[in-house]
Amino acid sequence: MRVEYDAEADMAYIYLVDTIAPGEAAQQVIAGDDMTAVLDLDSQGRLLGIELFTGRRLHPRLMEIAEPPGGAGPDPA
Asked: Is residue 21 exposed (0-12), middle (13-18) or buried (19+ Cβ within 10 Å)?
């Protein structure tokens, strides 16, 4: 698992797999009534990552390990 956090945009992405290839996230599911999170799923419905539109929802321990965007993996979309 890897976490990226963009402080300027206050957005975070939690990678649940090492990398997400372009086009691998075949489906996006909005989570929550306030649309603050999107679940990225592969073509078989397996969860690849979670995009949070407000990073403040991250647990402080996740914020401690968060990297700036564009680190080791490709763009999750």
From this structure: exposed
Alpha-carbon span 51 to 75, nearest angstrom: 11
Give the pLDDT confidence of 36-52 residue by residue, as tens digits: 899 999 999 999 999 99
What would the two tokens of residue 49 be? 């990552």
62 pLDDT higher than 50: yes
Structure tokens given for 63: 């914020």
Q: Is 46 strand, coil or helix?
A: coil
- Closest C-alpha to 6, from 74, 63, 60, 72: 63
